[in-house]
Write a structure and sequence with these properties.
heterodimer, A: 873 residues, mainly alpha, 0% strand, B: 153 residues, alpha+beta, Beta-Lactamase, two-stranded antiparallel sheet, 7 strands, 49% helix, 23% strand, globular
Amino acid sequence: MALKMVKGSIDRMFDKNLQDLVRGIRNHKEDEAKYISQCIDEIKQELKQDNIAVKANAVCKLTYLQMLGYDISWAAFNIIEVMSASKFTFKRIGYLAASQCFHEGTDVIMLTTNQIRKDLSSPNQYDTGVALTGLSCFVTPDLARDLANDIMTLMSHTKPYIRKKAVLIMYKVFLKYPESLRPAFPRLKEKLEDPDPGVQSAAVNVICELARRNPKNYLSLAPLFFKLMTSSTNNWVLIKIIKLASILLFFGALTPLEPRLGKKLIEPLTNLIHSTSAMSLLYECVNTVIAVLISLSSGMPNHSASIQLCVQKLRILIEDSDQNLKYLGLLAMSKILKTHPKSVQSHKDLILQCLDDKDESIRLRALDLLYGMVSKKNLMEIVKKLMIHVDKAEGTTYRDELLTKIIDICSQSNYQYITNFEWYISILVELTRLEGTRHGHLIAAQMLDVAIRVKAIRKFAVSQMAMLLDNAHLIASNTQRNGICEVLYAAAWICGEFSEHLEEANQTLEAMLRPKVTTLPGHIQAVYVQNMVKLYASILQQKEQAGEKEAAQEITQLMIERLPQFVQSADLEVQERASCILQLIKYIQKLQAKEVPVAEEVIALFAGELNPVAPKAQKKVPVPEGLDLDAWINEPPSDSESEDEKPKTIFHEEEQRHSRHRQPEIDEEELARRREARKQEQANNPFYIKSSPSPQKRYQDTPGVEHIPVVQIDLSVPLKVPGMPMSDQYVKLEEERRHKQKLEKDKKKKKQKKEKRGKHHRHNSLHTESEEDIAPAHHVDIITEEMPENALPSDEDDKDPNDPYKALDIDLDKPLADSEKLPVQRHRNVETLKSPDSEVPLVEKKSKKPKKKEKKHKDKERDKGKKKEKEKK
Amino acid sequence: IHFILLFSRQGKLRLQKWYTTLPDKEKKKIIREIIQIILSRNQKTSSFVDWKDLKLVYKRYASLYFCCAIEDQDNELLTLEVVHRYVELLDRYFGNVCELDIIFNFEKAYFILDEFIIGGEVQETSKKTAVKAMEDSDMLQETVEEYMNKPAF
């Protein structure tokens, strides 16, 4: 560029100031990078000049480039040069550049200590201000240590402008140099009652931030804050105080230190809620009241009035047309929900309305709320609404979210709210029609879980699954590579495992043997193969008992014909299982040819009941006394065997099968040994759930499934087409049923009571029955997941050892020790050179201050005089 | 407040202020990510986004987005007020502020921000005081500039 030609001339260099640079960049849109590298070259030239004005201009331009994303760390030293300029204009630019690009790793930062100290004690308040502002951005532990004392002195500066900045920066200093907290704290506390509102708010801010991390050290301040809260009128400060109050309170409630605080708080807060027009303050108050009530929910009799007030106000927020308020209203509502679900439930209409909102984030919040709002009564209704949304939803992420929420809602706390599992299964089946969902495995897991744990539903589940298998092509074809085919995994397993419930086993078997199956993912094919044999075994038994030998041989023949397609599979697992089974069946065929009855032996392969095992069961097995896990493996303690063989998941049936037979005996043995010693412990252990050989199982046998009237289902529900929305019919059915039940109940109240007692008995190991007792449609045995004897309590949450705020956990009420005083460094300024020694103790320094201030004043007046003169010129 | 970003509708960054120190690379990555998140949001949606363990609060004024990252416990509405107050301050200082004012006087925009917020905390809640501090320090600067513009060399 032409400019380069005259680089000797300072005047010309001045021409290209920041504005020119910005304009230049805007005019060179196509070759921006080239233009900028040109500019950087110019800037480098400028930085070599002696004139500070040129340098400052260059640094200013660099700062702009830095924002655009260019690296300017090479100019760090020049920035410091500009920082140390005596003119405020340049100093300001220098500090700005430093605050934008310096960080802890910048090595030249240590050169700035003295410069900053000089600026901090400058007679000009704006010099001090700019230094403080800059410091707030790039303070390092070293800087914090060296300057802590200077900043602390500034906290009692005469100008509120400096005071408030110093107070705020102290927070940064505390973070970098925690040792400074104790010596500085008394002064910080003083500032809470500073006459200037700005300083006061700064102090509140800092203490609030400090208390948030380590509340227990600040409990003693509670009365002071309480006073401020009732007297302050500044909304900004009020919000911070209220926030702090809630923090203190939350902590205070856990310790018996300030039990009255919460009660005291409620009143002024409710007053504020009534009176304020500022939404942000209202929101903060409501949040705090919620926090108060949560923390006091046990200790306080009733505050339904304040809860009601909160819920009302939140309703106003949610009904507001402003999306932000709506969002926050829902957010706060979900907090109330945790402790006072009843008061939120009455606003169900509003929340369902929010599901129709255009804003996805609001819909998601509403979904969260719904999760907590379901009860036995409204579950079906809510899920029905959600299903409608699933159909309408555009965008797979939101639909997937809906799907998981539906499943979460239904399965929460051990299926507590489901009264009709047939309905649930049909919901799950309907969900399989979703295209492109990633959550096939989730649906599959639910199907398996329900089928295994709810015995009464197995027959229905099997018939539904058989239909799924029959229509597998629908699922598998339109969802290539999509997760939904995972449900076939569940379907195949359920049909196989519970094949005794299958009505047309032949048809299902054929469906599983279709050539199309080989296009499914390997792990699903493997399950198919495994479960075919189960099916085959049960068909064989059926036929043999009926004496239809030919039919039995036919089915064997079918297997032998179709299995080779799996033997050729590329998937190892499929291949291995298929070839094993093929050989087995060929052997069976031979036996059949000799007219030997084989069914009993084949079925024996799959005898026994599979019980669900809690997901963390293995982890919770306690290490028995005397067992050294690191000991040699070939001389193990006697009881290690059973633990090693406990299957990890319910899916690994292979593993499970061979352990199945042995397990009970060893369990008995172990139980006998441990029971006496640990009975007491178990009784007190909330995580302990009784395992299968408990009295619970006996209930299943004696009163039995037959004993309880099972609603006739097959009449009204068409079971033909899968994917037909059937769950709606269940809703109707359920309503009728409940209605009938109610009538019955009215008639024979006495009888009902007895039944109820019986029911209580049955369920007491799971959960306490809710007040609204809607008797489930089926007798539902929710089998609890097996847990090892004497399960350990769940793992504690480890605290993050790297928490940067941990260092600030300091007891502030202890008196200061001499060793803790802030290091006072040698001042190289002219002013302080008079102090004789580098180690000036704190007290001495204070006494000297008035003198300094006087001097400053004089300086300032002189300065002003100068300025005026200049202006006159 | 962890940081404040100003960017245009085209995704061009106009101002960035960090109250936590991070390496440059990290900053760039975060900026890119956040701009993308916010620009992709519908106009009718709420102004709050959960992002990692922070919350983003943003608001659009004309063609500029103002975005703050706050902590979980902070008050979102208050942050919106902070943003609004900053815009008011800019407005007062520049007199009907527009994007170009901020582009061409970016250092001024920073100075105003510094008068308003220090280290991620609001320092001055009064508009009057903040603008006055700004004008005073400008006075100081202008006199110096005048002096500089008549150089002795």
